[in-house]
Design brief:
The structure is a single chain. By secondary structure, the protein is mainly α. It contains six helices and no strands. Helix 1 runs antiparallel to helix 3. The chain is elongated. The two termini are 29 Å apart.
Length: 134
C-alpha cells in the first residue's frame, strides 16, 4: 500500500512539474520575444556577419517566440508550439555559435557564459519536445 501511495504522489508531482513548466516557458518565450522588439540591437550583436537582414531576422524570431510561447498554453496547439520552438531554437543556434566563437566579446560577457549557452539550447530543445508530448 505504501508503494502505491508513493507511486501516485510521484506521478502527481511529475504531472504538476510538467504543467508548471509550460507556464514558466510561456513567460520565458513571450518575454524574450517582446525583448526582440524593445532591444533589437542586443540580438543583432550576436548575429553572424555572413547572415544578411539582421534586424528583420531579429524581429521575425521575436514574433515566433511570442507566438509559440502563447501556443504552449493551448492544449490543441501545444504539439505545434513544441515543434515550432525546436525549429526556432535550431534556427537561432548559429547566433549562439557566433557568440561562443567571440568568447563572449560580441555581448561583453565571459567566455564561460558564452559557451554555456550552447548546451543550454539543447536543454531548451528537450523541454520544447517534452511540451509537444503533453
Amino acid at each position: 500500500m505504501y508503494r502505491l501511495i508513493v507511486g501516485v504522489l510521484y506521478l502527481m508531482i511529475i504531472k504538476y512539474l510538467k504543467r508548471s513548466s509550460i507556464i514558466v516557458m510561456t513567460v520565458f518565450y513571450v518575454r524574450i520575444g517582446i525583448d526582440h522588439f524593445a532591444s533589437p540591437e542586443w540580438y543583432i550583436r550576436i548575429m553572424p556577419p555572413y547572415i544578411p537582414y539582421h534586424l528583420e531576422l531579429v524581429y521575425i524570431s521575436g514574433v515566433f517566440e511570442v507566438l509559440f510561447g502563447v501556443m504552449l498554453l493551448v492544449r490543441k496547439l501545444r504539439k505545434y508550439a513544441g515543434f515550432g520552438l525546436i525549429l526556432l531554437l535550431l534556427a537561432v543556434f548559429p547566433a549562439n555559435i557566433y557568440l561562443a566563437s567571440t568568447n563572449g566579446e560580441a555581448l561583453g560577457i565571459t567566455a564561460f557564459i558564452a559557451w554555456l549557452r550552447l548546451p543550454f539550447q539543447a536543454l531548451l530543445i528537450a523541454i520544447a519536445y517534452m511540451h509537444s508530448k503533453i
